[in-house]
């Protein structure tokens, strides 16, 4: 069964069409990453699927419940960590968690048990009695996620969970998120601007641009859509570059950088063949690098704003 299944979601704000028919199918116990440039509609999608705002059209099931007819059941199944942390700075970490327990109408002892367990799981026990205002951005984000978990949701929406965190804090949060999926079978829909985050964390990735999902698949599948494994050779001067370009008829020149791009993978056999051909032509390369498309290339290619065509 899908944890989230949406068909044809549409949303406009006034004249502005933001979502123009979005389909999503997210399997249980998986991480799904929604990518897209600023203003693409990621937060809007999260807000619709978490019942915070209504779509203008389309339909969706979240946790097996219909988004509009069973909105209360949907709300009971989900947790949402917004783009801006919901932590109350005047309360301690523990008080923030107990407040969430109250909001979920948990009996006092059960609230205390879950708060203690989450403080431990998120390595915040030593900070339990400190006010959140004194926390660093990373600690605040961890507490924010812990607060989302108090209600034991089956599905979690994370809107840019690691924005502003340093690489180590980001990794810590990734581990916690992966753990939720692997140990507890929780389903996660996250939005992110960090392509490495999607690459590391997500089972599947979708790219939102111009109101539509322009691509969907695993990180590997998306990378395969972009042409472009190549070897890049740099030369000391233009004469060497010209000589090398004459050897490889499929190569493309980057004269500004005195470089030559030769399509092909980075296997030792390919690299050796290229170097042998250069040797035979008595051309010396300054450096050789292997370039394989990464998720940055995918993102930049898929979300390129089309250049205005010049009228002939
Ligand atoms: N309440 C609102 N009223 C009017 N316009 C809105 C509202 N909420 C969002 N928008 C517009 O909808 C578009 C999508 O916004 P959204 O916040 O979903 O983008 P996003 O992909 O989350 O961007 P970011 O990466 O900057 O967080 C934007 O053009 C935004 O200005
Ligand atoms: Mg957003």
TrEMBL record:
Domain ABC transporter: 4-235
Keyword ATP-binding among record annotations: yes
Enzyme class: translocase
Membrane topology: Peripheral membrane protein
Keyword tags: Antibiotic resistance, ATP-binding, Cell membrane, Membrane, Nucleotide-binding, Translocase, Transport
Keyword presence, Nucleus: no
Biological process (GO), any one: daunorubicin transport
Record EC number: 7.6.2.2
SUPFAM superfamilies recorded: P-loop containing nucleoside triphosphate hydrolases
GO molecular function: ABC-type xenobiotic transporter activity; ATP binding; ATP hydrolysis activity
Location(s) in or outside the cell: Cell membrane
Cross-referenced InterPro entries: AAA+_ATPase, ABC_transporter-like_ATP-bd, ABC_transporter-like_CS, ABC_transporter_ATP-binding, DrrA, P-loop_NTPase
Recorded family membership: Belongs to the ABC transporter superfamily. Drug exporter-1 (DrugE1) (TC 3.A.1.105) family.
Protein's name in the database: ABC-type xenobiotic transporter
